[in-house]
Automatic annotation (TrEMBL):
Transmembrane segments: none annotated. This is glutathione transferase. The keyword Phosphoprotein does not apply. Belongs to the GST superfamily. Phi family. It comes from the Eukaryota. It is an enzyme of class 2 (transferase). Keywords: Cytoplasm, Detoxification, Transferase. GO terms for molecular function: glutathione binding; glutathione transferase activity. GO terms for biological process: glutathione metabolic process; toxin catabolic process.
Length: 181
């Protein structure tokens, strides 16, 4: 919020001036989904296999990561910006955009509901990076945005959310890095 990401030192790491950026020794990588994939691959042997054990499982993980990035996230980002951050960032909330984004997200969640009626997690019956990618912004949705019903009113989406959001590692992240409501 202070603009550090637009300063020359940061721009040398991330030329677009966005966050996050990770520096791992001599290696640097930016864009949240690229960072997630990198960390999951690099530390694959140190925890649950978040990328799948077979090429088919990996395909499902990648498919649902793309769905999160291109279909789920855009309307949720609009809700987040216009409900949580508009006043802090100095622009007016757009009520029409909020309504349209909620409708788009509802349609996406209806597809998730149908899909999750057939498997416990997005990529199959194992927790994957595709599931975890949904945590931060869905946490905003059910928390400070005040639209938990969008998750809770869908039986299978609600069960999935309860499962992934109750993971000890996620709870630890919330304790350390949670945005104040």
């Amino acid at each position: 919020m202070k603009g550090e990401h637009k300063q020359p030192a940061y721009l040398a790491l991330q030329p677009f001036g966005t966050v996050p950026t990770v520096v791992d020794g001599d290696y640097k990588i930016f864009e949240s989904r690229a960072v997630m994939r990198y960390v999951a691959e690099k530390y694959r042997s140190q925890g649950p296999d978040l990328l799948g054990k077979t090429v088919e499982e990996r395909g499902q993980v990648e498919q649902w990561l793309d769905v999160e990035a291109t279909t789920f996230h855009p309307p949720l980002l609009n809700l987040t910006l216009h409900i949580m951050f508009a006043s802090v960032m100095g622009f007016p909330s757009d009520e029409k955009l909020i309504k349209e984004s909620e409708e788009k997200l509802a349609a996406v969640l209806d597809v998730y509901e149908a899909h999750l009626s057939k498997s416990k997690y997005l990529a199959g019956d194992f927790v994957s990076l595709a599931d975890l990618a949904h945590l931060p912004f869905t946490d905003y949705l059910v928390g400070p945005i005040g639209k938990a019903y969008m998750i809770k009113d869908r039986k299978h989406v609600s069960a999935w959310w309860d499962c992934i959001s109750s993971r000890p590692a996620w709870k630890e992240c919330l304790e350390k890095y949670s945005f104040p409501a």
